[in-house]
Design a protein that fits this description.
The chain has 10 helices and 8 strands. By secondary structure, the protein is of the alpha/beta class. A 5-stranded parallel β-sheet has the order 3-2-1-4-5, sandwiched between helices. The chain has a 3-stranded antiparallel β-sheet with strand order 6-7-8. Strand 2, helix 3 and strand 3 form a beta-alpha-beta unit.
Length: 273
């Protein structure tokens, strides 16, 4: 991978990098297509990272279709697909080096719900950035907290990487595309649209108070019998510091998470009032 990307840069081509965990869908396709449109050479990584799964989380049950992933990435414009095994990525066993991003970015929301998750994310992303070298790396806003963690990682460790944020891709009914949607039953899939509806209610109205937004989002999700609320929050879009005591939203990020049966989904929306 390093040899291929070095050769692309030596030929004067800008490298685009799209890191994924596989189970590619239209959301991933949008990242790859944007990279292909903006860069001279696009590399997609497909690696189901065990470091970001807690012992109680179902790593073995995560959707996997390596051949399908390679086909989709190629069709979307990838010049290279790097799909290593765990043994290839960690030939000496689980790494004893870990990367931790602090500063309040990882101790709330997803960080609180999934202890150790962002350390696993940061460690594998640092490894991929080290392999890739100078590039533009494309990440979706659907995993908004992860996007901020990766940006801070790249800045603090001086990786020559421009982290590019891409809009969330949604189904026609508003559900954010996610590999985890495959876990949902038909009834749960219909119920899961409540996340986006809650965000829209939370964002409604100029000058909306942040405390009211949290309460409104929680009420919408609570009204769906198949949904079990994990959190609803209004946060600073750069630091994720809670804005529940702010006089008004201004620039903010609304974030929600809920369980639908055994499947946990997240979503978010930027607001500017």
């Amino acid at each position: 991978m390093r040899k291929e990307l070095d050769a692309a840069r030596a030929a004067g081509r800008t490298v685009g990098l799209v890191p994924t965990m596989g189970a590619l869908h239209a959301g991933h396709r949008s990242l790859i297509e944007r990279s292909a449109a903006e860069c001279g050479f696009t590399a997609v990584t497909v690696f189901l990272n065990p470091l970001q799964f807690a012992p109680a989380e179902n790593l073995d049950g995560y959707p996997s279709d390596r051949a399908g992933d390679i086909a989709l990435a190629t069709e979307a414009g990838a010049d290279l697909v790097y799909a290593p095994t765990v043994d290839e990525m960690f030939p000496d066993g689980p790494p004893v080096t870990a990367v931790t991003v602090g500063g309040g970015l990882t101790d709330r929301l997803e960080g609180a719900a999934r202890p150790g998750h962002f350390e696993g994310v940061a460690t594998i992303v640092a490894k991929l950035f080290a392999l890739a070298g100078p590039c533009r790396a494309y990440f979706g806003e659907k995993d908004y907290q992860q996007l901020l963690v990766v940006r801070r990682l790249a800045a603090d460790l001086s990786f020559p990487v421009d982290v590019v944020a891409c809009p969330t891709v949604r189904e026609p009914d508003g559900l954010a595309l996610s590999s985890r949607n495959a876990y949902l039953s038909a009834e749960e899939r219909a119920a899961a649209t409540v996340l986006y509806r809650a965000l829209l209610v939370g964002a409604r109205g100029p000058g909306l108070r942040s405390r009211n937004a949290v309460e409104s989002m929680a009420e919408v999700i609570a009204a769906e019998p198949l949904a079990r609320l994990d959190y609803a929050a209004v946060a600073d879009p750069e630091t994720l510091a809670p804005l529940d005591r702010a006089p008004a939203l201004g620039h903010a990020r609304l974030l929600v998470a809920a369980w639908f049966g055994r499947t946990r989904l997240i979503d978010n929306l930027g607001v500017h009032t």
